[in-house]
Amino acid sequence: MMLEPSIDALQEKIKSKYTLVTLSARRARELSDTKDIMIENPKSHKYVGMALEEIEAEKLYIAKDNK
Questions:
Q1: Does 29 map to a domain?
Q2: Residues 6+ apart with CB under 8 A from 48
Q3: What count of Cα atoms within 13 Å lies in the side-chain half-sphere of residue 7?
Q4: Is residue 61 part of a domain?
Q5: 34 in any annotated domain
Q6: How many domains does the chain have?
Q7: Which domain holds residue 23?
Q8: Which pLDDT score, from 0 to 100, does residue 4 have?
Q9: Residues 6+ apart with CB under 8 A from 28
Q10: What number of H helices and E strands is found in the chain?
């Protein structure tokens, strides 16, 4: 069974696995409250999967600090 999106594709967007997990978990909690999905027709029915799809679609990302 192949999981979508793949970890390799996601790590091209966000290098750190820790950051990827933290961001997707936070977004999943937000999705469970608001149901406000930023992508059309998500493949996943679970909130974490939807969050990962949003990361792959570059709708959800970590802003870089310009200090």
A1: yes
A2: 24, 25, 28
A3: 5
A4: no
A5: yes
A6: 1
A7: 7-56
A8: 82
A9: 46, 47, 48, 50, 51
A10: 3, 0
